Automatic annotation (TrEMBL), chains A, B:
This is TetR/AcrR family transcriptional regulator. Signal peptide: none annotated. The keyword DNA-binding applies. It comes from the Bacteria.
Length: 190, 190
């Protein structure tokens, strides 16, 4: 969220946000993401262009906000009964989603219209929440668990780095190999 | 590099590239990065706007190419006589450079005007080269060395992830802690 949008105010302001976000999603689905303009979005949303500029500052900040909303996970991580499988499935799903063409576009949009870094922080916040849920569940089962930052640093970060910078090296085994490394090498020492 | 620019052709074409890149750098230094327009860049470079569009496609692709050039390391990694110090110093320098305000802008520019991912690939290629140099030197000294991808996945990737997504968690000790983890936990098993 940009500071302007962070307040999530109710009433007219919330309706404007929703109709503008919906307009962006519809136009992206119809035209692809490279051709959007603020006047076109405003017309579809039934607001004036100056409303969009006043609220979001620029097209890229608006696209960043929309992208972050689309990156929000819709479900809790699945419970497979043990930590290893929970992490393997979650990491495989994360990789598949984020490395898809829409996933890559959303990550790029989220990063590029984000002058203060708060939208990028929101993206990693989603991953932190999901990982924390998985680890908490495992700890309640009595399993040994790594801490959240170990999973962020050594599973999520390498996945995201390859998605953004080295996509040629991604394959379905990679997420599983990172989980194996955490299990055999990076668990807390007794 | 975008495909158009990848050929690095000589003669007039190379001169155009150089004068346009120089114009972008000068204008960014004078005005900041948010206000640039193609006509303004073309005027400073002494070319027509259509030359810029023909060659780079869009402003964001041009800015991406310029950013990648600026992220190119200017020197070989320093030789401190042992792998651990070489990696600690290199990782600390990488963190300092990439997390600085200009570093962050270049990374964001490199990623955002990069439809085919080749500029992002070039950025990670620079890191791969530097890490490979460090590891090769250590192997020649007879030290045990991790492989390049272990360093990319467990030092470079976590650094870049926090730079882009979790800047509040960066501190100077972090790079050193990642090197320690590789040394004590992720070296090749005998």
């Amino acid at each position: 969220m940009t500071p302007r949008a962070a307040a999530r105010p109710g009433g007219r302001s919330a309706r404007v946000q929703q109709s503008v976000h919906t307009a962006v999603r519809e136009l992206q689905a119809e035209h692809g993401r490279d051709d959007l303009t603020v006047p076109q979005i405003a017309a579809r949303a039934g607001v004036t262009p100056s409303t969009v500029y006043r609220r979001w500052g620029s097209l890229s900040e608006l696209l960043s906000d929309v992208a972050v909303e689309r990156l929000r996970p819709e479900t809790q991580p699945a419970d497979h009964g043990n930590l290893r499988e929970d992490l393997e499935h979650w990491a495989a799903d994360f990789l598949e989603e984020m490395s898809s063409p829409p996933g890559r576009s959303y990550i790029r949009d989220a990063l590029s219209g984000d002058p203060d870094g708060s939208n990028a922080g929101q993206c990693s916040g989603y991953a932190v929440e999901q990982v924390t849920t998985i680890l908490h569940r495992a700890a309640e089962r009595g399993e040994d668990v790594p801490d959240t930052d170990t999973v962020m640093d050594h599973i999520v970060a390498p996945l995201m780095y390859r998605i953004l910078f080295r996509p040629g090296l991604l394959d379905p085994r990679y997420a599983r190999d990172l989980v194996t490394t955490v299990f055999y090498r990076l668990m807390p020492l007794p």
